[in-house]
What we know:
alpha+beta
Amino acid sequence: MAAARKTKGKTNGKKPKMSPEEWQTRVNLAACYRLVALNGMTDLDATHISARAPHNPEHFFLNPFGMLFHEITASSLVKLDLDGNIVEENEYGLNPAGVVIHSAVLRGRPDVASVVHTHTRAGMAVSAQKDGLLPLTQTSLRFYGKLAYHDYEGIAEPGEEERLVEHLSDKPAMILRNHGLLATGRTVPEAYLNIHELEHACQAQIDAQSGGNANLLIVPKDVCESTAQQYIRFTGNKIPGERAWPAHLRTLDRADSSYKT
């Protein structure tokens, strides 16, 4: 994979010329960045969220390296190809580790349209636990049998992509050991829901474990399995996260609608 090129250009907040579908993808991705910031899941400019371009599965959008999540707008997102080459001018460039992680998942999982990677305190804490995410809460059972794990190899560099994809397999989310969380989605709203729920499950686990000598009540295996099936039945043919997405956008609009620019 080629190293991401930094290309000088203009990011002036004006809507560039593109199809309505591409613009909507950019708006949804910018909204996801703002929602992640609103919910305190950021690590300065160190993490990243991507979305596949609607007209070319070999292209995707990523945050410009150096902007904080609450500053991201639809027009500031960087378009690049799966080899890490920037295909539209931008004044910021890209986080090389972000290019490795997101290009790997989007190349290896054609069913995935969006990827979220975070370094939250709770996510990092659970990633450092040998047993990973425990079946302690209803929220954690959303990921029962659907959570992958990838051992830490250092800051992501070219050469790690194959193992990332192999370990993720067909799962919707993954814990990067000693690192953080990763969630995918068939749409940006689904990816946001998955990272939100995985983060809450990790928060609840850390809170429960902080009770000193209190014994943790692990959900029995048969109940874990039946609850996981309930989530599948309740979802049906719908993509999770889509129903509440307009409400999330209304929340952002009331606070600051600049993500749409």
